[in-house]
Amino acid sequence: MMKTAITNVLVFDGSGEDPYKGEVLIEGNRIVEVARAPGKLHGAADKVIDGGGKFLMPGMTEAHTHFSWNDQPSLNAIQMMPPEEHILWCVGVAKRYLDMGWTSAIGAAAAKPRLDVVLRNAVESGQFPGPRYLAGSQEICTLGGLGDNTLPHLPFEELSFGSMVSGPEEMRQCARMFIKYGVDHLKINLSGEYIAGLSAEASPFSEEEIAMLVREAKRNGKRVAAHARSSDSVKQCVRHGIELVYHASFADEEALDMLEENKEKHFVAPGLAWLIRTNFNASEYGITPEIAEKMGYKRELEAATETLRKMHKRGIRVLPGGDYGFAWMPHGTNANDLQYLVDYVGMTAKEALLSATRLGGEIMMRPHELGQLKPGYLADLVLVDGNPLTNLGYLTEPSRIAMVMKDGVTYKTPSDPSPADASIHLPPRENPLADEGLKEAMAS
Fold this sequence. Notes:
Blueprint: E1 3-11, E2 20-27, E3 30-36, E4 47-50, E5 55-58, E6 60-65, H1 75-79, H2 83-99, E7 102-107, H3 115-124, E8 132-134, E9 136-142, E10 163-165, H4 168-181, E11 185-189, H5 207-219, E12 223-228, H6 231-240, E13 244-247, H7 253-261, E14 267-269, H8 272-280, H9 289-295, H10 297-314, H11 336-345, H12 349-356, H13 358-363, E15 381-384, E16 401-406, E17 409-412, H14 430-433, H15 436-443
Parallel strand pairs: 1-4, 1-5, 6-7, 7-8, 9-10, 9-11, 11-12, 12-13, 13-14
Antiparallel strand pairs: 1-2, 2-3, 5-15, 15-16, 16-17
Helix pairs in contact: 2-3, 4-5, 6-7, 8-10, 10-15, 11-12
Domain Amidohydrolase-related: 55-409
InterPro entries: Amidohydro-rel (IPR006680), Metal-dep_hydrolase_composite (IPR011059), Metal_Hydrolase (IPR032466), Metallo-dep_Hydrolase (IPR051781), OTAase-like (IPR057744)
Protein name: Imidazolonepropionase
């Protein structure tokens, strides 16, 4: 098998150690040796890549994404995209993620029943480049809940954003349908969402409906993910063993206690980018900061900031994943989440990188071969022009992502053109923090 050596790099290995000067040897699709300077690799290489002193790190994992969200300003605009164009869109987005150093991703939900499955299969078969991808179902919602956007004069479920159920038996049928399609996990909307006109603190599903979904999922070896902004919905996740908890903005002390007691079972991907950019960066699309406040997003951001800081201090696993794919937060800008984890959750830059790398291997259910640069691990790595530990913003700049390797295959080199549409930076640092209510939340 082909052996490739990457020399003259600053190695961030994802173990928690500080970066060090070193070299990495790859054989086939796996790392076989990591040498720390002044030591040298013992194995011979067929090809040597001089890293030019750049920063070498594990490929990142996006824990909460929707490849089929098509950078539009509304749920309807996403859903109404014809399926033929929609799968082509997903293929293009997958390449965009890989080019920006995201070598793994969790599909939080698909806009149409099989989009995630078809994309995952195409990437795995080598038809198109993209991250390692775990495919989600369409959002499972209850009548009148988040995802039900049918109209009284057009009561056709095919036009709904989510897959609607009422009662345990309909839930069983829905779960079995998505399992038949081949999803890796099933997604349920356990709370509301302000932009859909529904309270984020509401919890519309019955315990019996949730229990049925989880039972069918576990019977078939599938995980469950939940849109869970409300405190009650977070508790439902813990009670029923729903592993992937999305948002958790309003989790109260009881919910935090429950998560902490079961922190080895759950991951939280809060979607901070959605809250921050909807509050401060959506005016062009009709959501000014004043409108966002009336909708409830300012209050939710304040609550989420306080809640997530407590989670981090309790050792609950919090990962990047921001619901990217709306007009004011397009795909490819996902690395902004890392700075958000520092500014709003209280992580250090190193902790933010570890949440995207080592914890990424854990959420992908491959902790012993993904998320770190160690012998025996899969060769998923990113070479960055600049040290992200001194400036996480480097990971938002396409031109600084000098090389991307996944499974031992190089998908991006320094000579490749950078996608201009992937470079949208953070809002001014003082803007989100200027609000006194947010300052108070962060101080607590």
